[in-house]
Amino acid sequence: MSAKTTFRCMRCGHEFEQDYDPRAPLVEWTCPLPECKSNSIRPLKGKKRGEGGRSPKEES
Predict the structure, then answer these.
(1) What is the Cα–Cα distance from 29 to 47, expressed in whole angstroms?
(2) Which domains, ranges and CATH numbers included, belong to the chain?
(3) Do residues 45 and 34 lie in contact, with contact meaning Cβ atoms separated by under 8 Å?
């Protein structure tokens, strides 16, 4: 069962939503920004759809 999940590019920090099923076969994502296209993409754990901002650890 896939659900909308927020992903973050580890290179440029861009966040975007995409369908994600953690039980499906592994898929390699790329950053959707044309100037980046990095494949270092991670799903943000615990971040619900529509939440904004950064964690307190990242604000410093």
Answers:
(1) 18
(2) 1-45 (2.20.28.10)
(3) no
The answer to whether the Cα torsion of 4, 58, 37, 34 is positive or negative is positive
Query: How confident is the prediction along the chain (60 residues), in pLDDT tens digits per residue?
Result: 778 999 999 999 999 999 988 888 988 889 999 999 999 999 888 655 555 544 444 444
Residue keyed to tokens 């529509």: 50
Displacement of CA 44 from its chain's centroid (Å): 6
Distance separating alpha carbons of residues 19 and 5, to the nearest angstrom: 6
Which amino acid type is present at position 19? D
